[in-house]
Amino acid sequence: MSKSKIIRLVLAILVLGASVVLLLWAFLPALRETRVLPIPPGGLQLPTPEAWFPLLMGRV
Predict the structure, then answer these.
(1) What is the distance, to the nearest Å, from the Cα of residue 5 to the centroid of all Cα atoms in its chain?
(2) Contact of 49 with 57, CB cutoff 8 Å
(3) 23-60, pLDDT tens digit by residue?
(4) Cα(21)–Cα(26) distance, rounded to whole angstroms?
(5) 52 by DSSP, 3-state: which?
(6) Of 15, 22, 41, 52, which sits with the fewest C-beta atoms within 10 Å of its C-beta?
(7) CB burial class (10 A; 0-12, 13-18, 19+) of residue 29?
(8) Residue 60: CB partners within 8 Å, gap ≥ 6?
(9) How many CA atoms lie within 13 A of 24 on its CB side?
(10) Which pLDDT belongs to residue 55?
């Protein structure tokens, strides 16, 4: 075998190995995280329609 064929074969094996490792890594289950965020009651209120569409309501 010539030197260029050996280099191509080694590079192909490296690329194949890397892609198999990444494929196996992709199939691992994702870590589950739970975050508790306190939301104040004022954060649950929606703005009035006038605040959303002042031009449609005739107020600029």
Answers:
(1) 39
(2) yes
(3) 999 999 888 889 998 988 877 877 776 666 666 656 55
(4) 9
(5) helix
(6) 41
(7) exposed
(8) 54
(9) 5
(10) 61
